Amino acid sequence: MKYVVILGDGMAGYPLPDRDHKTCMQLARTPFWDALAKKSVVGLMRTVPTGFAPGSDVANLSVLGYDPVRSYTGRSPLEAASIGIPLRDTDVTLRCNLVTLSEDEPFAAKTMLDYSAGEISTAEAKELIEALKAQFDRPPFRLYAGISYRHCLVEDGGRTGRTLTPPHDITGKPIAPYLPAGEGSAPLLAMMERSCAILKDHPVNQRRRAAGKHPANAVWFWGEGTKPALTPFETLYHKKGGVISAVDLVKGIGVLTGLTVIPVEGATGNWDTNFAGKAAACADALLSGLDLVYVHMEAPDECGHHGDTEKKIYSIEQVNGVAETVFTRLKAAGEPFAMLICPDHPTPIALKTHTADPVPFLLYRSDEERSNGAQSYDEEQAAKTGLSVPRACEMMAAFLR
């Protein structure tokens, strides 16, 4: 038996008043999984436990079968694992975004224009991080380059408990109410302010402005955490698994849980990612010996953060296509399999950030096709079935039964 999880990050959302009160999942053309819903179990599951912020870290841990209440120690240490940062028990890690702030005001009066600095390329970001490292790499801090706008700061002997706001939550807002606060926040605030002077006229940003792109003119720290200890997936569930993703967070979860991280050329973490390559890599891995593959696609979430309805709809349609390709390959091979399709959390267009609402899921088994009444796969149909899973971390055990 083979198992595949198709996860469209943030693809759930709220009805759009200007689009006949339909969600992006309802507006997307998804004939494959709408037909599949009629011979699958469809319902809602809660991926974010009460008391947790609705982040992809907590939600993806839940879908993979790890209880965040027991296993979650912060977002950034998961990303650090993907980058290959060696962590000590005394380290505190923080996500470091390259962002675009307004440029004419004093630092505290600036506005968050773009949490991703225009989806800056990894090559450009590396140059900027090197310039920052020359100034920031002093005890107790070490700065590490990641992918695109996503990087990592490590503080030796630090403490958690500071108030740090995700930059994607404050797009278009003045930053003053959201600057780091609490004990130990002063050095972070000082580095954020200094980054503006270091990055403003850097050649990378001069070229970006000349090309009409957002400059990466500041850093923003958030998502602090400490070194986690996650039980290997194979130890918990007795299955050999792999993970496919373009983002450090999910790859880091894979590293820490002993899943094989499967690379896909052209995987960008956005709507222009190599969807076909992810589908092929998933099917190849399953047919070559892995028991389970977790295919994570960030694109719907990124489009939701940017409020881009059309690209979010397009991305959902591509996720549907990935599911269809993997389904077809496994069917043709005569391999019995189960497929779980779901988001990790909603990212409604109107809010441009995550919510903790339950997400729609579809569970199909090739050896046990059955329906619980859904006529398509979307938020409304999932709610109508009346099936509710209050703890998504318990779904994996049921999926692998």
SSE order: EHHEHHHEEHEEHHEHEHEHEHHEEHEH
**CATH homologous superfamily of the largest domain - what is it?**
Alkaline Phosphatase, subunit A
Shape, please?
A: globular
What number of domains? 2
How many DSSP helices? Answer: 15
Identify low-pLDDT runs: none
**Percentage of residues in helical conformation:** 25-40%
- Biggest beta sheet summary: 8 strands, mixed
CATH topology of the largest domain, by name, is: Alkaline Phosphatase, subunit A
What separation lies between the terminal Cα atoms? Answer: 10 Å
Question: Care to count the β-strands?
Answer: 13
Give the averaged pLDDT, no decimals. Answer: 97
In short:
This protein has 401 residues and is α/β, with parallel strands linked by helices. Helices cover 34% and strands 19% of the residues.
Describe the protein.
There is one protein chain. With 401 residues, the chain is α/β, with parallel strands linked by helices. It folds into two domains: 2-72 and 230-399, Alkaline Phosphatase, subunit A; 82-226, no CATH class. The chain contains 15 helices and 13 strands. Strands 9-8-10-1-11-12-2-13 form an eight-stranded mixed β-sheet, sandwiched between helices. Strands 3, 4, 5, 6 and 7 form a five-stranded antiparallel β-sheet that branches. The mean pLDDT is 97.
